């Protein structure tokens, strides 16, 4: 009887999730999760993605959420399998990515008695989830609550602040059974429907935003989650301001207000001092550039930070006004009622942007800055570019091309290198032709993502920057402060791995960088660079930009 109740419970969860819009489930195989996995597999409407490794599964589910804006259901068995999800849960929490985590568990009588695969899974992920629930072993007496549980869990992944929800689901044996009749559903849709976000307020009038911005020299800083490009462009045009656009913002379109080379431009002390803003509007998440963050902080300008949910985004503790609102709607409301800055304010930024972009065009594709530019210039329209943390995300932000048709995604919640390849697999599973730009250490950190990867029906090209170690540390004071041998031991950390042989061991085709531009199944391209030379290439580009800015007078 308990097996039938568990099967009916799980079939009800899945049915309710489908009514609420579920499309994908990511499963790491195991025994205790059998009732839920069978319920998911029984429904042809669910795209089921199997991963041998729990950590890879979890980050693939993050990638699906990142690409689609919808939660994938993530399932594992009990024990340390559930602990392997933790890094991805943290990333989803800090990056506001919807994710529904379902960990199977032993029933209460098998806890704290040294039963195999039994650990304490209660609130396993701490404060990194929007909601936690352990409904107990499925009980027929609770059947009237099953649809409510399912609907609430999925709804809470998308609002009011998107992120992970954790259901801990204990099951007794037998684990294999056929479901009985499901409890009735509501005809109009899922059991619960939520209105996401607060009621609309007259934020423009309430905070006199138009008066704060009008006629003043300012900048819009646009990161991931900054809203619709057209609305932001309209506001920037009305204000006569530049948009300092992170690659993840989707605003690098060649619009006259776009300034993509802000990091290199602001390294020029004269320009940075002369172009200090009087006010700043920050939309979405912060870019990676430390140079930009330091310039904003040093300016002393009032900063207005706008984000669609209540996430507190102020790492430098400089925000004057925090606005929780849809950035798109707010920009539209503001555009009609503001007056522009003096015309030379924007034109000075535009001239600097043009000369910096011409300098970046000289970077060779076999250098790390040039590789970032090459990919952002040449990848086909409609592609997604997933960029690893550490140097790749900075190189794409600093040197990436200004163009339309390319979506840039990255795990910038916790800014770690954990699970990056798996995240790219998840993005590719959403259906978009996907390229991953990743460093060798991050690639090796997630080699379990390669298991059975060649057999997946996806278009994913992995471009590995192989400099035999941790390239970002070459830019830190440790590189010059320590003897080279000690620096290599503690920070350079050479690995000596044959990246191409590793790919071949997983039956992944190795191609040239030029061939990698065409989306065609799963392939890998390795680009060899030198860590110390890479620092010199960056310095050379920055000096060239500075010289070009000097020539403007």
Provide structural commentary.
There is one protein chain. This protein has 553 residues and is of the alpha/beta class. The protein folds into three domains: 2-170, Rossmann fold, CATH 3.40.50.970; 212-343, TPP-binding domain (Rossmann fold, 3-Layer(aba) Sandwich); 361-552, Rossmann fold (3-Layer(aba) Sandwich), CATH 3.40.50.970. It has 22 helices and 18 strands. It has helices at residues 2-19, 34-41, 54-68, 80-83, 86-95, 146-156, 203-206, 209-213, 229-239, 262-266, 269-274, 290-299, 327-335, 343-360, 368-378, 391-399, 420-429, 440-445, 478-481, 484-492, 499-505, 531-552, and strands spanning 24-27, 47-50, 73-76, 99-105, 131-133, 164-170, 218-222, 243-245, 258-259, 279-283, 303-307, 321-324, 383-387, 406-409, 434-439, 460-466, 509-510, 522-528. A six-stranded parallel sheet has the order 2-1-3-4-6-5, sandwiched between helices. Strands 9-8-7-10-11-12 form a six-stranded parallel sheet. Helix 16 links the parallel strand 13 (383-387) and strand 14 (406-409). The protein is globular and about 85 Å long.
Our measurement of the CA-to-CA distance between the termini, rounded to an integer number of angstroms, reads 83 Å
Taking strands numbered 1, 2, ... along the chain, how are they ordered across the largest sheet? 2-1-3-4-6-5
CATH superfamily of the largest domain: Thiamin diphosphate (ThDP)-binding fold, Pyr/PP domains
**Looking at the chains present, what oligomeric state does this protein adopt?**
single chain
How many structural domains in the coordinates?
3
Question: CATH topology of the largest domain, anyone?
Answer: Rossmann fold
Rg calc: 25 Å
Q: What's the total helix number?
A: 22
